[in-house]
Amino acid sequence: LLERHDLTKAVFAAVAAHLEARGEMLRGGTIVDATLIAASPSTKNETGRRDPEMTSSKKGNQWYFGMKAHIGVDVESGLVHTAGVTTGKVHDAKVMDRLIREDDVAVYGDKGYANDAKKRAAEEAGVTWAVKEKAKPGGRLTARQRARNHRFGKVRAKVEHVFRVVKCQFGYRRVRYRGIAKNGAQVFALLALANLYLVRSRLAPA
Fold first, then answer.
1. Hey, is 131 helix, strand or coil?
2. Which class for 2: exposed (0-12), middle (13-18), buried (19 or more C-beta within 10 A)?
């Protein structure tokens, strides 16, 4: 029922709305990021094959099999306001537009989101493009670009707090079901709980 009626998405949205009403989540800018949730590559199951909805993604020199959780985090509070899930091979930048709010005036992200066309569009719209710059093939970043990346990286680091809570505090490092929909439903529930966990001390009665 949770999966069929998107109830965990509704819970996530309700928690985000409540936190915004309480002044815990502010408008202004978004940090985008994604993390891979591993799935078992084993074929020792009833179907005799791996989950067809999970795919491989390369990070550095390592390949990972599973799905991705994509999040848009409020710059000021570090809380998640938008989320989505995809199979592992989907590039982070393809989901980026779905994570940004219409009234955002700044967008932060790591090098995986670097895109010249999106950068120009953001600047034309008066939006601060605070995505880390990536060196061109065979080239190197200038000292100014490295300093810029370092400055924006300090802000972008807030997004890691959410993933730390989900993976370390809640222990969600591997998918628990087959298929994107069922696992996605659990991700939305966990992100709603992560938001509450991050502001638990301020929400608790005096």
1. strand
2. middle
Which stretch of DSSP H or E encloses residue 159? Answer: helix 158-164
Residue 133 contacts residue 150 (beta carbons within 8 Å) = no
Rounded Cα distance, 178 and 94, in Å: 24
Count of helices and strands (H, E) across the chain: 7, 6
Cα angle 8, 30, 133; round to 5: 130
Nearest to 79 by CA among 202, 206, 204, 205: 202
> Is pLDDT at 206 greater than 70 in this prediction?
no
Round to whole Å and give the CA distance between 23 and 138: 47
HSE value, Cβ hemisphere, 13 Å, CA-based, for 55: 9
What's at 104, amino acid-wise? D
Model pLDDT for residues 153-164, shown as the tens digit of each residue = 889 999 999 999
Q: What 3-state class would DSSP assign to 51?
A: coil
What is the CA 183 to chain-centroid distance, rounded? Answer: 15
Rounded distance, CA 202 to CA 23, Å? 11
- Mean of pLDDT over the chain: 92
For the chain, list the strands marked E by DSSP.
29-38, 55-59, 62-74, 80-87, 106-109, 128-131
| pLDDT(60) > 80 | no
H-helix or E-strand containing 145? helix 143-156
